[in-house]
Amino acid sequence: MPLVTYFDHIANSSSSKPVKLSPFANMPLYVPKSINLSLNEEQLKAVFRKHDVNGDGCLSKDELMKAFRELGSRNPSWRVRRSLHHADGNGDGTISLDELDELVKYVAKQGYGIN
Ligand SMILES: [Ca+2]
Ligand SMILES: [Ca+2]
C-alpha cells in the first residue's frame, strides 16, 4: 500500500485499540535477584571476578556492565564509565585484577557494599 495509507492505517489501528500495557509495566525497574545490598569488599570482588566470562583476567566494559546489572545498578553503562575513570589505572579500557581493588573500593563507596 502507499506509504501515506500505511501510516493512516497505523494511526487508525492504534487509536481504535486500547493500548495494551506490558504485564511488567507496574514492576519496579530492577528487582535484585540475589543481592542483599550488604556485600563486603570480598564479596563484591567475587561478583566482579565471576563476570570475567572469557577468563582473560580483565573485566571488559561488557563484563563490567553485567556485573553492575547484577549488583542492581539502574544505569550500568554510566556506572561502567565512572568505574573505568576511577579504577582503570593504565587506561586500557578494562579493569585488570590489579585494578579490581581500586574498583571495589569505589563501588563500595557508592553504596553497593558494606552497610
Ligand atoms: Ca574478561
Ligand atoms: Ca586497565
CATH class of the domain at 41-109: Mainly Alpha
N to C succession of SSEs: HHEHHEH
Average pLDDT value? 81
Identify the overall geometry: elongated
Number of continuous helical runs: 5
Strand content: under 5%
The overall strand count is: 2
* Ends apart, CA distance between termini: 61 Å
Sequence stretches where pLDDT stays below 50 over 5 or more residues: none
Biggest sheet architecture: 2 strands, antiparallel
Question: Taking Cα atoms only, what radius of gyration do you get, to the nearest Å?
Answer: 21 Å
SS-derived structural category: mainly alpha
Keywords: Calcium
Protein name: EF-hand domain-containing protein
Domain EF-hand: 39-74, 79-110
GO molecular function, one term: calcium ion binding
Written description of the protein model:
With 115 residues, the protein is mainly alpha-helical. The chain has a domain at 41-109: Recoverin, domain 1 (Orthogonal Bundle). Helices cover 54% and strands 3% of the residues. The chain has five helices and two strands. It has helices spanning 3-16, 41-50, 61-70, 76-87, 97-112; strands at residues 58-59, 95-96. A two-stranded antiparallel ribbon has the order 1-2. Helix 2 crosses helix 5. It is elongated and about 60 Å long. It starts with a helix and ends with a helix. The model has no long low-confidence stretch (mean pLDDT 81).
Q: TL;DR of this structure?
A:
Keywords: Calcium. This protein is 54% helix and 3% strand. The protein is mainly α and 115 residues long.
